[in-house]
Amino acid sequence: MAVAIPAQGQLKRDALVQPVGGARSGEALLGVGVSRTENADFPLAGLGGDLTAFPDLHAAWAIGPRVVFELKGAARKRLSIERRDSVSSIDLDPSLADGASRDVGDFELAVSFAPIGGATGFSAGGHLGVKLPNSDEIRGIGLNTTDITIAALFSWGSARWRATGWLGVGILEVPIEPFEQNDAFAYAFEALWDAAPGWRLSVGACGRSSTRSVSPPGTGDLGELRATVEWRRGPVSVDGGFGHGTTEMSGDWNVRAGVAWTLAGNR
Is residue 233 a contact partner of residue 262, using CB atoms and an 8 Å limit? Predict the structure, then answer.
């Protein structure tokens, strides 16, 4: 989400909800970052500890008027194992005995579109995201599953601020049960304010809530509250922020930072 200033790029690295109405057709963004989460929990593997993701990659492209395509995920993750459950739902790699696990993160492909409304005021559309099974579950960090998010997108804003979000359903593949899925209520909200020339502030929340009273391991509730500050000069932007997990699987506090390069689109 970004303010609608024609002279600036509107796509945002690490956005909870990528801007649609503010982005110009053909505009693209390439970003790289790093993040660290304290006390992350991985119930399928029975592991927990501090998780570092680097490089954390994000690419966004306004493929048409009011349509944005995204690819994001961590090329590498490292878990410093601080606790182990006595029973694990899967057989873990023996190399995890050294107290750390390293693996590629899961990547997500997403498209957001808002055919109703304009760059300011009210707009509406949809969001479709697919998480790809890039990770190896025996490493303990990922689930090696394919998850789908289908949601309705809404946005409201002016030239200096914008609030955007989507509400929908997450269709989650159960890691250890073939042909089994867990449906969840999925959501994301973010509000962004153009505080001063070159500076943007944003706050938001995202997550999911399972529709089952007892969720299969790896498909439980997730939630995060996040605040970010971004500084932009020309096509380059630098951002930093922190978040707080609101569920057991989400970890406790996390910090993130990154840099992005914007390629201008058609005016």
Answer: no
How many other CB atoms sit within 10 Å of the CB of residue 3? 21
Phi-psi region of 75 (alpha: psi -120 to 50; beta: other; left: phi over 0): alpha
CA distance 230 to 183: 34
Whose tokens are 């023996």? That residue is: 94
**Residues whose CB is less than 8 angstroms from the CB of residue 1 and which lie 6 or more positions away in sequence, other chains included:** 12, 15, 16, 17, 18, 19, 22, 155, 157, 162, 163, 164, 190, 191, 192, 202
User: CA dihedral in degrees (10, 11, 12, 14; nearest 10)?
Assistant: 160
Query: Which pTM does this prediction carry?
Result: 0.89
Reported as a single tens digit per residue, the pLDDT across 186-230 is 999 999 999 999 999 999 999 999 998 888 888 999 999 999 999
